[in-house]
Amino acid sequence: MSVDRDELDVTAYLNEVCWAMGGSFAEQQAVRDELRAHLREAARDLVMGGMTARDALARALDELGAARDLGHAMRVSRGTRPLRRPLVQPAGAVLLHSEHARNLPGARLAVALAAVAATPAAVALAFVWPG
Amino acid sequence: MVRTSEPSARFDRELLKGNTATVVLAILSEGPLHGYQIAKEMRRRSDDALRLGQGVLYPILHRLEDRGLVVGEWEQSTGTPSRKRYSITKAGLTQLGAKRTEWAAFSQAMAKVLDGEGGGR
Question: For residue A69, which residues of chain B lie inside 8 Å, CB to CB?
């Protein structure tokens, strides 16, 4: 297994932690750096104990615990705001900008326009909704 | 997220979780350490009985830092990514002293009850 694959695993894990944690970019970066250092040290010790690099990383990730649980615990301890995905994706904008937009039947065009109109409000609502 | 190895299987999860902050303060009272070193030290000193899901340590460290009981400092060294090292503060030492007293009184009281040393009847 390549180092790149290991890096992808670590990055995916840290992304999930940060997603569940929320907070500012700086807060998330600090947590990423701290956990990355932890994983590196833990994996190094396990390799010195005879494990392969790949198995050591898998064990180190396992011992840190579920990413979502860790992120949630971080959010509670740090009092950070959760991140939220927009409730409505701006699919309407994509539709209207496609070259086929002029051929849309009236009802679909209305839905697309409504989606475009609702997106900013829905995104704003997603960020102010109490969590 | 608290995991227990065989020797600690008899420990209640909540008992461990509720006392982890005190254990962390006790370990840091002997010198500054990184998060991973704290987790290792916790296992070593308890003969592997206090084995946490290591991730549980970081929310606790950050909470202790917010409360001014520990302070974290980033170490920059050439060639390796930075690491955060935690030290106990004066307020942390005071808190640890109070927790030690509380724990001693609590365990003494529990021992009396569980060992049947009341002599009341």
Answer: 1, 55
